[in-house]
Amino acid sequence: MKSSILAGVFATGAVAQSGPWGQCGGNGFQGSTSCVSGYQCVYQNDWYSQCLPGTAAASTTLKTSTTAKPSATSSSAPATSSSPSSGNGKFKWFGVNQSGGEFGEGNYPGTWGKHFIFPSSSAIQTLINDGYNIFRVGFSMERLVPNQLTSSFDDGYLRNLTETVNFITNAGAYAVLDPHNYGRYYGNIITDTNAFTSFWTKVGKQFAANSRVVFDTNNEYNTMDQTLVLNLNQAAINGIRAAGATSQYIFVEGNQWSGAWSWNTTNTNMAALTDPQNKLVYEMHQYLDADSSGTNAACVSAEIGVQRVVGATSWLRANGKVGVLGEFAGGANSVCQSAVTNLLEHLKANSDVWTGALWWAGGPWWADYMFSFEPPSGTGYVNYNSLLKKYVA
User: Fold this and answer.
1) In sequence order, which residues have a C-beta less than 8 Å from that of residue 364 and are 6 or more positions away?
2) What end-to-end distance do the CA atoms of the chain give, in Å?
3) Which residue from 296, 214, 222 is spatially nearest to 259, judged by alpha carbons?
4) Which of 344, 349, 348, 342 is nearest to 359 (CA)?
5) How far apart are CA 320 and CA 268, in angstroms?
6) SS3 assignment, position 358
7) At 349, is the pLDDT very low, low, confident or very high (cuts 50, 70, 90)?
8) Do residues 169 and 175 make contact, with C-beta atoms less than 8 angstroms apart?
């Protein structure tokens, strides 16, 4: 979840033509239905049409339909990368983020049980029993390698992190290592790609023998130079593979909080990332409130999730990539429940490019947090577990 809110991100207004990858139609849409030269307005679903590269006339007659089900596909060529998803309407991964190790931001190294805590193994076991098979474990880079990125591990913090990861993977699930740092270290934007490579080489060596570990390069890069974001991701990939960690997937994240809603306009250079093992998965996040920040329990509409990710779906397919929705959630109300269902149905219908999704979030310190997925009484768990269990792998 992003730590600050973008203002006016979804402001709309009449324009002469929609730009590349922009929205150009859909139920309730009031903007331009024509695209700039070189792009055509392509129907995606009843709520969203998009300007995609093409040689057709700039303006395209849009489909209309009374169908309520948001199934969306693209006419673009299918993905050509080595994909962990078969495109058969099933997810490889479906799970829950686990928070606690990254809590207490600014209190470094902090005190176990006061500033931070790691997830509950019993809660994770309950979720595994429910069918969830992937858990993204948040941690703090400042606690794992104190003082500078090239430092040695803090043995105590590493032991706690490793115990959580091993519990998950020994139970047959996947554990995503999530440095929840927003592209920063001690609050400063990371600019030293060599040091970043060094960090990931150390982490890669530590977990190289565990094939059920997934490496997430960093949580929600934001307000950073776009080329730097690309280079940091590549530096992480290089370090992980150089460490001998060759069997694991790597989740790469983008700028602007890795938002799916803006991926195809913000993170286009991310298509240039390379991995000798061809096991990259593009991790995007998507919330359903007014500014996509995930700070409000209200969802814009039942269709908003589909509207916000359909451009990313097209980007993945057009570039031969696969993605995962690393964070999503909705409030405990019927509009959000419909929006979450429609979003997941869209991802499932496009499972050739979407490998799965993870709810935000579980963890023992969420108390009455509106999205808490901590069994047995977390608000999200009580209101969404039955719905989400329909999508478990």
Assistant:
1) 100, 117, 119, 120, 123, 374
2) 24
3) 222
4) 344
5) 13
6) strand
7) very high
8) yes
Q: Are strands 188-189 and 213-216 parallel, antiparallel or unpaired?
A: unpaired
Q: Are 277 and 242 in contact (CB under 8 A)?
A: no
pLDDT tens sequence across 295-332: 999 999 999 999 999 999 999 999 999 999 999 999 99
Residue 364, preceding bond cis, omega within 30 degrees? Answer: no
Query: Is 327 noted as a catalytic residue in this protein?
Result: yes
For the record, the structure tokens of 158 come out as 């590493």
Q: What string of DSSP letters covers 247-283? A: SS-EEEE-SGGGBGGGHHHH-GGGGG---TT--EEEE
238: its two tokens: 């290089």
Q: What is the spatial distance between Cα 317 and Cα 305, in angstroms, rounded to a whole number?
A: 18
Could you write out the DSSP letters of every residue in 297-348?
S--S-TTHHHHHHHHHHHHHHHTT--EEEEEE---SSHHHHHHHHHHHHHHH
Q: Where are the alpha helices (DSSP H) in the chain?
A: 121-130, 141-144, 155-170, 193-207, 226-242, 263-266, 304-318, 334-349, 379-388
- State whether residue 44 is helix, strand or coil: strand
Q: Is 374 a catalytic residue?
A: no
> What distance in Å separates the CA atoms of residue 184 and residue 171, rounded to the nearest whole number?
32
CA 176 to chain centre: 12
The strand pair at 213-216 and 250-253 is best described as: parallel
Q: Which residue in 102, 142, 220, 283 is the catalytic one?
A: 220
| Helix/strand/coil percent split, the chain, to 5 | 30, 20, 50
Residue-wise pLDDT for 97-129, tens only, equals: 999 999 999 999 999 999 999 999 999 999 999
Inter-helix orientation angle 226-242/193-207, to 10° = 40
Look over the chain and give the mean of its residue pLDDT values, rounded to a whole number.
Answer: 86
- The active-site residue, picked from 142, 283, 303, 327, is 327
State the pTM of this model: 0.81
For residue 293, give the nearest of 327, 336, 270 by alpha carbon: 327
Residue 75 to residues 8, 54, 317: CA-CA distances in angstroms? 31, 11, 9
Q: Is 245 within 8 Å of 202 (Cβ atoms)?
A: no
